[in-house]
Each structure stands twice: as structure tokens, then as C-alpha cells.
Design a protein that fits this description.
By secondary structure, this protein is an alpha+beta fold. It folds into two domains: 227 residues; 108 residues, Alpha-Beta Plaits, CATH 3.30.70. The protein contains nine helices and 17 strands. The strands form five sheets. The protein has a five-stranded antiparallel sheet with strand order 1-15-3-11-12. Strands 7-8-4-10 form a four-stranded antiparallel sheet. The chain has a three-stranded antiparallel sheet with strand order 2-14-13, with no helix packed on it. It starts with 14 loop residues before the first helix and ends with a helix. Belongs to the FliD family. Pfam families: Flagellin_IN, FliD_C, FliD_N.
Length: 444
């Protein structure tokens, strides 16, 4: 029959405590090494993440100077109560225009005759066409032909197709209002009725009783005597780089539209680049700090990567410093940039292309800096590779912990086997000792 045993009972030794202590002593050096390595690795992963984020922000700020982003903006100014508003991009040419809003684009709006709310107008099929679009049907079921039923059927079956139905409850009864979702002649509504009991014919645009509240009218606007017709009151292609929003028709009355240079937006964009550049430099400086008295060392202290990146970026600035200085940019001792706003304004007034010539996609500095940033934060860049290497190290640490757990488990089993054997042997020796003692006592 099997017997139950418990290590230590026979010998009096605290086997569990001894085994635990020995395993812990064996484990501690490896644990300490892995804990230190993991702490350092996590700190470095975080540090490179902070630097990569700052460098990505710098890349985004630099990309704003691509194409026409490096040119001064434009500001559109219109006359008082002009009947339109305007905005301009850097593509607009500086100049003055005379604009007349002859007519606004309006949406086609139709109205039925008033009937009692419970009146069954009819059933069958209503066929709608919006402008030159594809015709579509709305089915009105028998017994569901009140104006409210028809409204619900139209809004459900014709959702997103260009027509909206509403009910106005007046003193004389309910009135169905049908409105095109498109302004201008392109949104003209055409409605036909067929099938059913024939009652829906009152809602047909030909032969029905619908009245027109608003015509499908196009906008008409003249610029310096040149006429433009549009189905929309929002015109983006009338004047290059200028967007007009027509708000009120004032036939025969022209109002001024002045398009002038607006360097303020370009200055803001340049300040954004400076802020991003300084943030990137400060991030690298913080993470690579050597530390010392009353100063904390950075997670990348002693790592050459941040210092190499800072040096290359400062060299890029230095190589184009004369051009930066002309724009009012200055460098501090620590390599950060600042902008003299007044000097910038004067420089842009003299040469509107100065920023584009320095930071644009075809500019020498712009191309060099974009190349540097790609080398650092691109998929195969220096920072990306360092982050991947640290991630691999973290995986290795995790695997080493798994291996350590397995090795300690085997060691614990070995210790337990040895002390169990010792416990058994000591129990046997104690039994033999007791037997001898008893035998000697009996003999005497």
C-alpha cells in the first residue's frame, strides 16, 4: 500500500524553507541582471520613441512648405454689403476686381394644394427625376395615401436621391412641400404619376396642381464685365485661387474684390517649423544628457545616435545660415532657432519667394533636410532600426525569463529530491539509533 510522506518529518529539517532559499539564491543574480537590462531597455525604447515623435513632427512642419506652401498667402477683401464673401489661396494673383451678383442659385421648390390631414390623396407610383439624373420611383400603397404617408414614403424610398418632402400644417389643411437638394437648373424637379387609383396625378409637374414656390434658377455673376452662370452659389473656379460665396443678388451693382499679399500665414507656418525643430533638438538633448551633480542622466546618456543627429541638423542649418539670417532666423548657443518677425516681414516684402527658395521641395536646404529626416525616421532609418533592435532585445529578455523559470523549476526539483533523500536517510538513522538505544537499555 502506498504511504504518504512529507519532506522534513523524518529528520526535523525544514526542507521547504531550505529548498526555497537555495533556489532564490541561485535565481537572484540572473533576476537582477534581467531586471536591470529590462529597465534600461524600456527607458531607451521610450527615449527613442520621444525623439522619433519629435522628428516626425518636424517632418510634417517642413512638408507644409511644399508646392506653394512656401509662398505668402493671399487675403481677399470685399466691399461693404457686397452680396458675396471671398477667400484666396497663395495661387491667387494680387489684384482688384469688380464683381456683380446678378442672381443667386436657388433650389426648385414645389407645393401641393391644401387638404385635410386624413384625406387619402391617392395611391400608385410617383416617378421623380432631378435635373438630368436617373429617374426613380416611389411607391404609395393603397390606404397609405395621406400627404403625411406620401411624405414618409418619399423620404424613405428616395433618401439621398435629391428630393426632400415636408408637411406644412396650415389653416386650410396640410400642404406637401417638395424641395430639390440641388440648386440651379441642374436640380429641377420633374414628377410623374402612374398606376393606382389615379389620385397621385395632382402631384405631377405636368397636369397636376403643384405650384412653384422657388424656381430652379442658376446663379449669375459678372467679374470685370465677364458673365458666369453657375448652378451653385459656391464658386471655386471663377478666379484662379479665389473662392466666392454668393449671398445676395444685387443686379447692376458692382462691388470691389481686392486680393492682396498676406505674409502672416506664411510667418505662422515658419514659426511652426521653428517650434518643431527646437522641440526635436530639445528631445535629443534631454534623452542624451550626461547627468552629474543636481542633473539627471538621460536614458540615452553615452549613446552616440542623438548626438550624431543633432550635429547633422546643426550642420544643415549652418550651411544655409546666410539665407536663414536674411529671413530673420537666428540660432542660439544650444542650436535652437528663433525668428525676428520684423526682419521677416521686410524680407518677404522684398522677395516673396524667399521662404520657398529655402524650404520648398526644390530648394537645396529643403531637399537636404527632408533627406536627413528620411534617413532617421524612414522605415529603414537610423531611429527606426534602433527601435526595432530594442524591441528585439525586449523579446529576448522575455524569453530569457521564460528559460530562467524553466531552469529554476528543474533546479528546485533536483534540490527537493536530494533533501528528500537526505530526510529519508536521517529518518532511517534516527530509527536505528533508537533501536540500538532501546536494545542497550534492555541488556543492562
Amino acid at each position: 500500500m502506498a504511504t504518504l510522506t512529507s519532506a522534513g518529518i523524518g529528520s526535523g529539517l525544514n526542507v521547504e524553507s531550505i529548498v526555497s532559499g537555495l533556489v532564490a539564491a541561485d535565481r537572484k543574480p540572473a533576476d537582477d541582471r534581467l531586471n536591470a537590462l529590462e529597465s534600461t531597455t524600456k527607458a531607451q525604447i521610450s527615449a527613442f520613441g520621444s525623439i522619433t515623435s519629435a522628428m516626425s513632427s518636424l517632418s510634417t512642419a517642413l512638408d507644409k512648405f511644399k508646392a506653394d506652401g512656401g509662398l505668402p498667402g493671399r487675403k481677399a477683401t470685399v466691399g461693404t454689403d457686397a452680396g458675396f464673401t471671398a477667400s484666396a489661396t497663395s495661387k491667387a494673383t494680387v489684384g482688384n476686381y469688380s464683381v456683380t451678383v446678378e442672381a443667386l442659385a436657388t433650389a426648385h421648390k414645389l407645393q401641393s394644394a391644401a387638404v385635410a390631414s386624413a384625406t387619402q390623396v391617392g395611391d400608385g407610383t410617383l416617378t421623380f427625376q432631378v435635373g438630368g439624373g436617373t429617374a426613380f420611383n416611389v411607391v404609395i400603397e393603397s390606404g397609405k395615401g395621406t400627404l403625411a404617408n406620401i411624405r414618409d414614403a418619399i423620404n424613405k424610398q428616395a433618401a439621398g436621391k435629391g428630393v426632400t418632402a415636408t408637411i406644412v400644417h396650415g389653416d386650410d389643411g396640410d400642404v406637401l412641400t417638395l424641395t430639390s437638394d440641388k440648386t440651379g437648373s441642374a436640380g429641377a424637379l420633374s414628377i410623374g404619376a402612374s398606376g393606382g387609383n389615379g389620385g397621385l396625378s395632382v402631384l405631377a409637374t405636368s397636369g397636376g396642381t403643384l405650384t412653384q414656390l422657388s424656381a430652379a434658377q442658376d446663379a449669375v455673376v459678372t467679374v470685370d464685365g465677364i458673365t458666369r452662370t453657375s448652378s451653385s452659389n459656391h464658386l471655386t473656379d471663377l478666379i484662379d485661387g479665389v473662392t466666392l460665396d454668393l449671398t445676395k443678388a444685387k443686379p447692376g451693382t458692382g462691388f470691389s474684390l481686392d486680393v492682396g499679399a498676406d505674409p502672416a500665414s506664411l510667418k505662422d507656418t515658419l514659426q511652426g517649423f521653428i517650434t518643431a525643430y527646437n522641440a526635436a533638438m530639445n528631445a535629443m538633448r534631454k534623452q542624451s544628457a550626461a547627468g552629474g551633480e543636481n542633473a539627471t542622466a538621460g536614458a540615452l546618456s553615452g549613446d552616440a545616435t542623438p548626438r550624431a543627429i543633432m550635429a547633422s541638423m546643426r550642420n544643415a542649418i549652418s550651411n544655409s545660415y546666410a539665407d536663414f539670417a536674411k529671413l530673420g532666423l537666428k540660432t542660439a548657443v544650444d542650436g535652437t532657432l528663433s525668428l525676428d518677425g520684423s526682419k521677416f516681414d521686410s524680407a518677404i516684402a522684398t522677395n516673396p519667394s524667399a521662404v520657398k527658395n529655402l524650404l520648398g521641395d526644390d530648394a537645396e536646404f529643403g531637399k537636404n533636410m527632408r533627406g536627413l529626416l528620411q534617413n532617421y525616421i524612414g522605415d529603414d532609418g537610423m531611429l527606426s532600426n534602433r527601435s526595432k533592435s530594442l524591441a528585439d532585445r525586449q523579446k529576448s529578455i522575455t524569453q530569457q525569463r521564460t528559460d530562467l523559470d524553466a531552469r529554476m523549476e528543474r533546479l528546485e526539483k533536483a534540490y527537493r529530491a536530494r533533501f528528500t533523500a537526505l530526510d529519508t536517510m536521517m529518518a532511517q538513522l534516527q530509527g536505528t539509533s533508537s533501536y540500538i538505544s532501546q536494545h542497550l537499555g534492555t541488556s543492562s
